[in-house]
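Support case: user asked for a sample of complex input and structure output to validate their parser. Sending the pair below.
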Amino acid sequence: MEELLEIKDLYVEYHTMEGKVKALNGVNLKIAKSESIGLVGETGAGKTTTALSILGLLPKRNSKIVSGNIIFSGKELTDKRNRGFLEKIRGNRIAMVFQNPLSSLNPVFTVGEQVAMVFRRHQKMGKKQAKIEAGKILEMTGILAFRMEDYPHQFSGGMRQRIGIAAALACKPDLLIADEPTTALDVTIQAQVLELMKELQNKSKTTLIMITHNLGIVKELCDRVAVMYAGRIIEEGEVEEVFNHPFHPYTEGLLGSLPDIKKKIERLNPIKGFMSNPMNLPKGCKFASRCPYCMEICIKEDPSDIILNDKHRAACFREDKGKVS
Amino acid sequence: MNRVLLEVNNLKKYFDAKGKVLYAVDDISFAINEGETMGLVGESGCGKSTVGNVLVRLLKATSGSVLYNGKNILKIKGHEKKSLCKEIQIIFQDPYSSLNPKKTVYQILSESYKVQRLCSRREIKTRIEELCRDVNLSLDILSKYPHELDGGKRQTIGIARALSLNPKLIVCDEPVSSLDVSIQAQIINMMMDLQKKKDITYLFISHDLSVVKHISTSIKVMYLGKIMEEAFTEDLFGNPLHPYTKALLSAVPSVKSSKEKKRIVLEGDVPSPINPPEGCRFCKRCWLVQEICFKEEPMLKESKQDGHRVACHFA
């Protein structure tokens, strides 16, 4: 399969008043064309930072890509000389749907104008033509044409998110990054948005990076899943494979902490403790302090990725699952 | 069957919304048995939090009665109302806004003892330390301020505060919704352990069906201020009768479901509680809707199963 995006050994830091925050610590990820991948992990794991680095939207003031490469269809995006290229493809070939649709839409423009703006900017359309196209794409996401003259605050949360999706899909992007698109929505509205995304995926074969903390959504929408912890992808593979045979103790813990509506569980099996402070990450494996299988080597060295099979890799020293030392 | 601890009869809470009436809670009745957990689920705006707030008297009910141990707690005043706090407590959803940022954890936790004038200063200290052991908090946290702590710790403090007076009933208003899954699981386990240890009754309000299923003995499903269906947890999930419940259950993404899963997708949004539809409240989004649904409001009626009641003309 043809590769669309590759992230190689990406390190990103934020500089804050309290000190240096190591947000990404060696992210490696390859995404093929028309694949959908779920990026999961807890708050502070680096999911959104990964997305923002791809788009070149990291706040310039206090963050920087320390090292690593992001290669999108053969071009290096981290290279400053390719800044122009990135600006051209952002919103055009790579688009993003944000978590909070109310703050990602501009309150002083009608939604029709906002979606039309994408066409005018990237496809150099005239006003009239852009408006017609905007109407079409909004209709596709379930917003009726007569509402194009309305402002974002006049829509409900679910509809705003549809508008966000419409704006993102306007230029038929090769890559769509959705950052927790349904977290702010009610379940029945979430179901509407998920169905819409599924439909779009089937129709236009867009490559999708779905950022979420909801493993159920990943299961329903994605082919592959990448689990992030403390700025690193600690396990990655096909959804079926990873969920049925989790290798990394963190993935195992995540799956154990989920109450499920399909299954009766007497007691949840949570991961003990809290995530290490990203300002002061321990040496060795970042998960060691919470890991039930922690060995001596885990405290000293950071594990590199091991390939379990062609569909599955994980970063853990554990060779034999279930062996507790 | 356990003894009934709390009985809510025909509770109504209407708000005034710029001259119009907002029907937040519209004539609901239920009972909670001692030592059990009752789940209250529904989408935002269905009135579930309003119910919780009325029960702890943070909001005044428009009409109806709430009998706690046989006594109508909506009518009591003064001293009696104050001592009600020792019986019924609440855990709030947002651990960031429910703790006073100017006070240390120790001050926050000692407040209830001081207000109730329960014990001497020295005794307060031993009680708080005991409390910390109950909820697995280390003692060095007591001198910290809320902003120094993460969401999980803060919510634990919210729980400790609710436990401080040894209440019989705790209203839990979305206590784990703002937490990450691994922390959420820790808190849920802790709440279930405390329930066993101290024989507490919970009213568990949440929009997350899988969490409610895990923790509750029985469940009520609310929609636009009304109870649509009530049943024991297994019955509700095994055999949902109301179309809304069916849609809710099928909407939840699960790790166990397949990619090809067919779900019932409801059209549109929850209508505004200012102008609820006539007839059945759910008629505008229901896919099984018939003429009668627009005219007549279905009553909550008993189904074949014991304790399973549903408000639908066709269930």
